[in-house]
Amino acid sequence: MVAITVRLWIDAILTIFVLGILLWAFVDCLIRRKEAFPAIGTMPKAGWLLVIALLVVLTYFTGLGLFGFVGAGVAAYYLLDLRRGLREATEGPW
Questions:
Q1: Whole-number mean pLDDT of the chain?
Q2: What are the tens digits of pLDDT across the range 59-93?
């Protein structure tokens, strides 16, 4: 009984964390200029917004399952790799 409650709390905390980083990636993608995406050789801005928004919705409704883990990976890739490239393309390396 206690183990089930602990597992539910852990799943809820991890789901909230994944949704948080997905929403952070979505908002960051919204504020970037659309010309910067082709400049670094990636999918267009609309494609990233669509993918991230779809993963937010699917993670919200299905919880931390396949879509949650895929969403965490996509958000991590966007925030750790693409965000830096987009920032350098629009603002310069300094």
A1: 93
A2: 999 988 999 999 999 999 999 999 999 998 888 76
The amino acid sitting at 26 is F
Tokens 């931390």 correspond to what residue?
Answer: 64
* 33 three-state secondary structure: coil
Nearest to 22 by CA among 61, 65, 76: 76
For range 32-38, the mean pLDDT: 93
Q: How many Cβ atoms are within 10 Å of 47's Cβ, its own excluded?
A: 12
Share of the chain above pLDDT 70, in %: 98
Crossing angle of helices 45-62 and 2-31, in 10° steps, is 160
Question: Taking a C-beta distance cutoff of 8 angstroms, is the pair 36, 89 a contact?
Answer: yes
Report the distance separating Cα 76 and Cα 94, nearest Å.
Answer: 23
